[in-house]
Amino acid sequence: MAEKGIKSFFGPDYREVEVGKIITLCDDEPLLLASGAEISSFPVAYQTYGNLNRDKNNAILVCHGLTGDQYAAQKHPVTGKPGWWKQIIGKGKALDTEKYFIICTNVLGGCMGTLGPKDINPETKKPYNLDFPVITVSDMVNVQKLLVEKLEIDKLLCVIGGSMGGMQVLQWATAYPESIYSAVPIACAARHTAQNIAFHEIGRQAIMADPNWCGGSYINEKKFPSGGLSVARMTAHVTYLSESALHRKFGRELQDRSKISFGFDADFQIESYLRYQGITFVERFDPNSYLYITRAMDYFDLTSEHSSLDNAFKNTKASFCIVSFSSDWLFPTQEAKQIVRALAGTGSDISFVEIETDKGHDAFLLDEPEFYRTVAGFIKKVAKKAGL
Amino acid sequence: MSLRKDQEVITELIEPGIKVIDIGCGSGELLAALEENKGVTGHGLEIASEKVSTALASGISAIQGDGDTDLQYYPDKSFDYAILGQTLQIMRHPKMVLQDALRIAKKVIVVIPNFGHFKNRIYLATRGRMPVTSKLSYQWYETPNIHFCTIKDFIVLAEEIGCKIEKKLYMDGKGKTRPFSGNGSLHANLFGDFGIFVLSKD
Lengths: 388, 202
What we know:
The complex is a heterodimer.
Chain A: E1 3-10, E2 15-25, E3 31-32, E4 38-39, E5 42-49, E6 59-63, E7 89-90, E8 95-96, E9 101-105, E10 120-121, E11 126-127, H1 137-150, E12 158-162, H2 164-175, E13 182-186, H3 194-209, H4 218-221, H5 226-240, H6 243-249, H7 269-282, H8 287-299, H9 302-305, H10 309-312, E14 319-325, H11 333-344, E15 350-355, H12 369-385
Parallel strand pairs in A: 6-9, 6-12, 7-8, 12-13, 13-14, 14-15
Antiparallel strand pairs in A: 1-2, 2-5, 3-4, 5-9, 10-11
Helix pairs in contact in A: 1-2, 3-5, 3-8, 5-7
Chain B: H1 5-13, E1 19-23, H2 29-38, E2 41-46, H3 49-57, E3 62-64, H4 67-70, E4 79-85, H5 94-104, E5 105-113, H6 118-127, H7 151-161, E6 164-171, E7 177-179, H8 186-191, E8 194-200
Parallel strand pairs in B: 1-2, 1-4, 2-3, 4-5
Antiparallel strand pairs in B: 5-8, 6-7, 6-8
């Protein structure tokens, strides 16, 4: 198995950073994408935590959201920040690394080592940019399945993830029902709604309206659409919060001043906060990756793919634990309930809870003890059922 | 976790290894006991978020949902038993809930607090006010029990729905479970704190 550390570049300065463990997939046979395009001999970056047991039945696949990556439970090589799900992965935590083997891959189309639009197109010897094929959530999951097979794991104990990660979980459950014991889709939906697509479109338009985007070829020009990407992030970030959380954290408090300036500086703390979110995001994320991954989410719709949601889940035998958050307006509880209803009809073992919180969609990444103990109890139950 | 007296009776009524839905399962105490002692496959439905997460944290399968509206999503006879343990009287549509329970499960166990107990009758007759007793401890304006009935009322409903009453028991003031005496329900309806029924409908 080929594993090597490779370097990638980040931000307007094109800073080079090593992105960890990489495996090359599809050397012999290309992978057919939903769009009809094919990819072969492509890199997939992933990280693992804990050890795979002899029976290879203690593996849990963690799926990341839109701008997450494989650094789920360790220091991020670009930002230096702790893993995005450190609260849930680790010794004695809900995803206990003493018991389970945790795998997290960077999604197809991403910018942390897995094949994405900033990589070199072997045909042109230049970055793919917009020649990169449009990818879907099912393509992402097919790549994960290939990696899991390479690791010689027949059946995952669990697939778990929030937001776009939750979509991947649902895709696993419908496309590979025999390959998972359990599924934990969190803060997600079986399809992207018109409102979700609308916000993504605003983000994409912001990136594409930046002259430094150069029709997608900024790498060739050594430029970077920082402004556009930053606005995309600021817009998206608001959708991850809730009105009451914004009020609680910022209210109308002013930023480093005692009165308003009668100008367009960041008078308010919320403005300063959002600008900071935008600036730091630009340092770690690729603008074209943002376009491709948001598109993949927009295209996600299990209902139309399987003619009905009941039909989508008809072969599933997995145990499900569906979690939503009361103040999440991006993926509201109502969407989770659609999944619950469809699954109830299949007679599957299902659990569902709406966690009370004012933290909005981002709650799955934040300190929510009730959420952690729910997941911990569920994982323990399925581990017992799987004979661990 | 300790069980209520009526839940202990339910545990005795249920055969080992079967599939059970507890409608209004709370934090899953009864299901946990049934899974441990009877090896049943349990599933709970509960409206309160924190109770559902407590159930899930202890390894019980449960769905946060409303018995009044969410039973319709379960296929016919998808459970061996449905349990309505002191929950029917808090539903908005008890008749519909009972019908749905009879549809999704082969047998239904119902426990109802008995408003027809002689102490309640005396309370109402002598004081002219809604009974507030140790068993029915709420004032009328704060009680979650929005649909009170007597043991006799429940039997009338069961007949109206056309289901078969397989077992009928009542629990007296000392927490002792007894079969109905004679053919009628007079005795049970006077001395039962709770009525306990096993119902079925093809």
